[in-house]
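Appendix B. Worked example

We walk through a single record from start to finish. Start with the input: the chain for carbonic anhydrase, Planococcus kocurii, length 198.
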Amino acid sequence: MLLQEILEHNDQFVAKKEYVPYETTKMPQKRMVVVSCMDARLIELLPKALDIHNGDAKIIKNAGGTISHAFGSIMRSIVTSVYELNAEEIYIIGHHGCGMSQSNPQGTLQKMVDRGVTSPMVLSAIEYAGVDLHKWLFGFDDVVDSITANTELVRNHPLIPKDIPVHGLVIDPQTGKLDVIVDGYKDLARSVELEQSL
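Next comes the structure step. The output line below is what the pipeline stores for this chain.
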């Protein structure tokens, strides 16, 4: 059983004090917060590609690395990172070949029915109550568009300071190569120029 393997490993990890190299504070040393996808290929690759070590950053992961609600848990974590954990930069990082760009809400709903978790009647009742399950389960069509939209959402959020750079990047899940979609520094410079011209 996987849980038992994990617990046995953990007992040895603690007994041998293998945690010592990872000791740090809760404050991100590089003063950054990263929102990224939960894709298993990025667990070690993303931090290595960004030169992030234990204690350097707050990393928030979910399906697709998307921010689906302006006042949902992802945005709450970003706001907390800025005000309580001294993060000074925000990075929204998607990846090529993301499963959320190929999501199939109807297929997912059918799998729920097939596993006996729900029924078509219950799904209809949820939809009738105003929850658009297809929209809720759908990811995005294009990773660049998704990163751009999420970056704009964070940059224009009423609770995010206007002097915080919000960057948007896409990582190759094979090589770790980063492509800049939105340069938060340039956006800040443009905002300052615009304010000065008014």
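Two observations about the output. The radius of gyration is 20 Å. Strands lie at 32-37, 57-62, 89-95, 166-171, 178-182.
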